[in-house]
Design a protein that fits this description.
It contains nine helices and seven strands; from the N terminus they run E-H-E-H-E-H-E-H-E-E-H-H-E-H-H-H. It is an alpha/beta fold.
Length: 231
């Protein structure tokens, strides 16, 4: 532990047929897995840009340790533990806080253009008095949650992957008397419309933004008729 701040990325090894299945179609299963690998690599670069933080990957499956060690040798690897997503998030955050980190933030790995300023702001909010920080997603969930004390109810008692995740989390935080700060909203790339949105954003963004995701879209542009229709 080198910093009082822990920033974790939750990730699974890309596997065709199991990764980004809501993007098939317009993508093939192999292409969807390759795209997620681009998202993941771009996300790790975002994390590297956050100063004064220790960087970790909370990964699955257990046999993917070698994959992630090769992908990000500068990140600490921690195996996700728990039956459901909320339990796994709680375990990862609580483990960091019990290790002595003053602030622990965990984020998703499918929003490759997330401004790095949002990540820095999460730690600033926790440092300046917030007990919980949340980054709302446009789909009703969140792309990030940060704590400075364990708050298992916020994670274990919320039904994940529904449009009510953020609202349910905020309701539980209010019941617990926790002070919450919301970051600016952002979006996850889960469906074809999200991929079209990403393509539009990258068309106007500087070339250093999400370079691997940008290269993927350029390579597949001729095949993604749906994206051309929606852009």
């Amino acid at each position: 532990m080198k910093s009082p701040n822990a920033l974790l990325v939750i990730a699974k090894q890309p596997t065709p047929g199991r990764t980004k299945t809501r993007l098939t179609p317009p993508l093939t299963a192999d292409a969807a897995a390759a795209l997620y690998e681009c998202f993941l690599a771009d996300t790790l670069d975002l994390v590297r840009g956050v100063p004064e933080t220790d960087h970790l990957i909370a990964f699955l499956p257990a046999e993917a340790r070698a994959y992630f060690a090769a992908l990000a040798p500068d990140f600490e690897l921690v195996l996700q533990e728990g039956a459901g997503l909320g339990e796994r998030l709680d375990h990862a955050l609580t483990a960091c806080l019990h290790r002595g980190y003053e602030r622990a933030v965990i984020m998703n790995s499918d929003g490759p253009t997330l401004p790095v300023t949002h990540l820095a702001r999460a730690f600033a909010a926790l440092r300046d008095g917030a007990e919980v920080v949340l980054g709302p997603s446009d789909d009703g969930g969140y792309y990030l949650i940060g704590l400075k004390q364990p708050a298992p109810r916020l994670l274990r008692e919320v039904r994940m992957s529904t449009p009510n995740v953020l609202a349910d989390t905020l309701a539980l935080a209010a019941e617990e008397g926790l002070q919450v700060e919301l970051l600016p909203a952002w979006y996850d790339v889960d469906e074809a419309a999200d991929l079209a949105r990403l393509a539009r954003e990258l068309a106007d963004a500087p070339p250093q933004v999400a370079p691997r995701s940008r290269a993927f879209l350029a390579h597949y542009a001729g095949d993604l008729d749906l994206l051309r229709d929606e852009c």
